[in-house]
Amino acid sequence: MPESTAIAERSIAMQRSPEFQRLRRTFMSFILPMTVVFLAWYLAYVLIASYAPDFFATRLGESYVTVGLLFGLGQFVSTFAITMLYSRWANRVYDRAADPLAAEMERPVAGGEPDAR
């Protein structure tokens, strides 16, 4: 059997394994809620800007700072916060669960070295 066929079969077997399915569920259990929260926050920003521009134009005190400016800056802050949360989560949880699967996929195929492509 050609080496590429053996690697493809190992890949398919890995995708069907309970360990990989558990890893996929772990990933989705973090990513899906984060995506929903961020999209809801972004949609709220767009809708408020579209339908309540006077609210966004409200000045805070005697300064030039408006509610809209704070919401806009909040978009950047939330993006960085989600990125940091994901990075910490991936390092603590996801990578630890993925490492054994990666090691299994990187071990040499019977009769040769792993495909270097």
From TrEMBL:
Name listed for the protein in its UniProt record: Membrane protein
Keyword terms of this UniProt record: Membrane, Transmembrane, Transmembrane helix
InterPro entries reported for this sequence: DUF485, MFS_trans_sf
Bilayer-spanning residue ranges: 30-52, 64-86
Keyword hit for Cell membrane: no
Organism annotation: Agrococcus baldri
Superkingdom of the organism of origin: Bacteria
Lineage of the species this protein comes from: Bacteria, Bacillati, Actinomycetota, Actinomycetes, Micrococcales
Cited Pfam families: DUF485
Signal peptide: none
